[in-house]
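We now fix the convention by which a protein and its fold are recorded. The integers have meaning only within a learned vocabulary of local backbone shapes. The record below shows the convention in full.
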Amino acid sequence: MAAIRPRSTVSAWQPSVPGIAEVFHARFTEHAYPAHVHDTWALMILDGGRVDFALDGERHGLGVSDVVVLLPPGVSHDGRTVTEAGFRKRVLYLDTSVLPERLTGAAVDTPLLADPTLRERVHGLHLALAERDPFEAGSRLAFVRERLHRRLAGRAAEGQAPGPVPGARVAVRLRELLDARVTEGITLEEASAELGYPHPTHLIRSFKAAYGLPPHAYLTARRVALARRLLLAGVRPAEAAVAAGFYDQAHLTRHFGRHVGISPARFARSGRL
């Protein structure tokens, strides 16, 4: 008789700590994240099992250890379980007041930080956040930030600035346009006209070369991120779906399950536990 896999579980909330956009604790046994991006930094520690992910096209594997994973904003990545036992993780989504985007290149080069001190500091920050103690959490976040800067700033200074990616300028302009139209959306024809490019395929190729995923996948990820914030703020799933730019709740549910691993309703309830 086959062993029954434990159910996937998720707990997520928005703490009242400046710099932390979301706390996300999860156990996944079969989930696979599609390629996506965040508009925040994702700082992860693993508490059980193994996980495999690709960042900017390069694959990495991780088991329980003193290693801390740091994924920068705006860079495509995925994630998946490796064994039948799945994995347990704790993630902090940090905005750019904690880490500036200029450190993105250093983080792409070394997303796995083998640093027992940093791992212990991140663990302590999670404990303070679980206690809903914003003062202690803010203090611990300062020490996490200090350690991350120490690990990344030197590496960023060592490397030379990368050469321009073909079409990088138009990709940046398209990303800014998508960021400004997350809810209402925009067609490729409208974007092409606004940006002065007659062929939408050029925009798609340029965007994917720069960010690792096509514009529609980027926009979907931004809408899922917006829906997460609305759900944790107490907005009902049906209302959050429309407010985040999805056609209806079913549309949100399909994409939300792929990106987060549970339904919007379960995600919303997790923040009230």
